[in-house]
Amino acid sequence: MSKLNKLIQAVKILAQKPYMINKVIDNEDVHQDEVLKIGTQYKEGIPTIDLTEVLPNFNETINPYSFLDGGSLLTDLALLKGLAKKYTDCTYFEIGTWRGESVANVAEMAKQCFTLNLPDERLREIGLREEYISQQSFYSKNLTNVTHLKGDSNIFDFSPYYGKCDVIFIDGDHHYDAVKRDTALAYQLIKDETSVIVWHDYAHTPETVRWDVFRGILEGTPKDKRKNLYHVSNTMCAIYSTTQYNELDKSKLIIPTKKFEVNLKTHSIL
Question: Same domain, yes or no, for 29 and 72?
Answer without folding.
Answer: no
